[in-house]
Write a structure and sequence with these properties.
three-stranded antiparallel sheet, disordered N terminus, alpha+beta, 11% strand, 3 helices, two-stranded antiparallel ribbon
């Protein structure tokens, strides 16, 4: 009995030593000598991975939002440039005496020097009513549909080409030419719709609704905040 008890004590101490050695080395030791991760190690690993994933999600969301903000700024710049170009082409258009001008048409402001960048004049006086004295576009759609134009002053020529001739951009047989200021009505990147907020030249920035007189400025209809803390509708 003493011999058996002594052998059991030796085996017990050996097993205890192997177990303690396995946990101290950070591995779980199985009966066949293979080593694996402990439950604590797996929990810690999963926790670290979760923290890394949760940290990358806001970065990805901010990157997508920043791309939309860049597209919004580019779109606003494109539309505002089209509005300004339309306005430049109205200088000197639809002139003549009061008796020669169709009724219901806004008078020519007069005595305004034409912008050198403008090579044509708008020749469709019916789009301007008596309220639109500043002659900004009556709507955004007209920038896409185009308006009838005529050359500003003398006909624009492309002179002395390869064959020594000069070609008129506006030929006498041309009955009508239209100029398009926007290829298509852009979509607001923040809302996914072309539901832009419009403001006429007779409205302040804080006016809630458009007065339908003309389009002086466009803004996003989104009330969300940008990454810099500003509202998109204030851009």
């Amino acid at each position: 009995m003493l011999i058996i008890n002594g052998q059991l004590s030796v085996v017990s101490r050996q097993l205890q030593g192997q177990i303690e050695k396995g946990f101290c080395n950070g591995r779980r030791t199985t009966d066949d000598g293979q080593k694996g991760f402990t439950l604590l190690e797996l929990i810690i690993t999963l926790g670290v991975l979760a923290i890394l994933v949760m940290g990358t999600i806001p970065l990805a969301q901010n990157a997508v939002k920043r791309q939309k903000e860049l597209r919004l700024r580019e779109t606003l710049r494109e539309m505002r440039n089209a509005i300004d170009e339309f306005r430049r082409d109205t200088i000197g258009a639809c002139g003549g005496q009061q008796g020669q001008r169709p009724t219901g048409i806004a008078p020519d402001p007069g005595n305004i020097q034409a912008d050198p960048r403008s090579r044509v004049m708008i020749d469709d006086c019916k789009i301007f009513d008596t309220e639109n004295l500043d002659r900004y576009p009556p709507s955004l759609d007209i920038l896409v549909e185009g308006v009838k134009i005529k050359p500003r002053g003398l006909a624009i020529t492309l002179g002395n080409g390869a064959f020594g001739d000069s070609t008129n951009v506006f030929k006498e047989e041309d009955t009508e030419k239209k100029k398009v200021y926007l290829r298509a009505l852009p979509v607001d990147p923040m809302t996914g719709e072309n539901d832009w907020k419009l403001r006429s030249s007779y409205q302040t920035k804080d006016d809630g609704s458009w007065d339908d007189i003309n389009v002086f400025d466009v803004r996003s209809s989104s009330d969300e905040e940008a990454l810099n803390g500003e509202k998109y509708s204030d851009w």
